[in-house]
Structure formats: C-alpha cells, structure tokens
Write a structure and sequence with these properties.
By secondary structure, the chain is an all-alpha fold. The protein is built from seven helices and no strands.
C-alpha cells in the first residue's frame, strides 16, 4: 500500500514538474509579491529573476533572506561579486528550498 501511494505521489509530482518546466514556473508563484518585507529586502528582491524572487519572498524565512543578502556581498569562485540570483540559489541549495516544494509539498511560508 505504501509503495502504491509513493508511486502515485511520484507520478503527480512529475506532472507538476512538467507544468513548471513548460511555463517556466507555476502561475501562482509568478505573481509573488514581497509585501510585508523590510524595504531593503524588497529592494534586494527587485533584482532577482521571477523564480528566485518567488523563493526569496515566498519560501525563505527572514534568516534565509538575510543570508542571501549577505552572500550577495561576497565573491564567487571567479573572484567576482555574487549576483543576488547566485546568492538566493546558494541558500536554496543549502537549505533545500525549491519551487517544487512551493508547488507540490506546501512548504511555503506564505500563501500566494
């Protein structure tokens, strides 16, 4: 029974992943705003691509947002300043936060 449930869950997740790939990311995430965030966090979010903005505003907590903002002041492996997008992606990897989690697993911190 558990294997059947897991198989069905994987199929459903794959279907949602295809939808996200086809459209870039789900429509409800595309419209993510950053209302309620501090002005400096809104400014940082304005420099992000739509997918990373959705992560930053919708899935990250304040500690993760602050970590991303700090990372964007550091050098990357090429000796250049990390972009805001690179910083959000690094925090996302380190904390295992993704658009898939927002769409399929309901792990987002706010409603869209």
């Amino acid at each position: 029974m558990k294997r059947t449930f897991f198989a069905i869950l994987c199929v459903i997740s794959a279907l949602y992943a295809d939808e996200a790939i086809d459209s870039g990311f789900p429509a409800q995430i595309e419209n993510t705003d950053c209302e309620g965030l501090a002005p400096e966090m809104k400014d940082f979010a304005s420099a992000l691509n739509p997918a990373n903005r959705a992560l930053f505003c919708g899935a990250f907590d304040n500690e993760q947002r602050a970590a991303a903002m700090l990372l964007a002041t550091q050098l990357n492996m090429d000796g250049l300043m990390k972009t805001p997008d690179e910083a959000v992606e690094e925090v996302s990897r380190d904390k295992n936060v993704s658009l898939h989690n927002l769409k399929c697993c309901g792990l987002c911190k706010t409603d869209f």
